[in-house]
Design goal:
The chain is mainly β and 170 residues long. 13% of the residues lie in helices and 46% in strands. The chain contains three helices and 13 strands; from the N terminus they run H-E-E-E-E-E-E-H-E-E-E-H-E-E-E-E. The strands form two sheets. An eight-stranded mixed beta sheet has the order 1-10-13-7-8-9-4-3. A four-stranded mixed beta sheet has the order 5-6-12-11, with no helix packed on it. Strand 7 and strand 8 form a beta hairpin. It starts with a helix and ends in a 13-residue tail after the last strand.
Amino acid sequence: MTDPLLDELAGPDPICRRGEGFADQITADDGTITGRAVPYGHTVELRPGLFEVFARGAFKNATKDPGRVKIAYEHGQVIGHMVGLEERDDGLWFTGRISDNPAIPEAARARAMIDEGLADEMSVGFRTVKGGTHAETTDHGTRYMHTRAQLLEVSVVPWGAYGREATLAR
């Protein structure tokens, strides 16, 4: 049986993917990046009439074991892992490390794109959890408030759904 809420938010893929600003900083020597993965309290229009917002604490469980959260390049190949995740008033902040292993060419590509300023926004891949998402319908459409979700990955992307609100720290 499918979940209509998940179908509406994710489409055919059960993993929801959303963008934010940029990864604030990359340390080229070891591939460490920091930034805000997702802003809290910031409503974004995913498509006409469909809005979404994350509440503070939505990814609290991920902060307990950040290494389980991966870094991906454009929601594709896994290129690294999180070293730390921190809940702040303005969003979920991260520190992660992009691999320098030559067997992972997407990691080298992501590093180059970040260094050139071509990929500086972030996007999150998550799953909704039972009781963690609430819908509100108005004349303007439907707004989903995520109070809890399972964070799977943070992706480095050229354009994220949250734009400059989720970016690498510079």
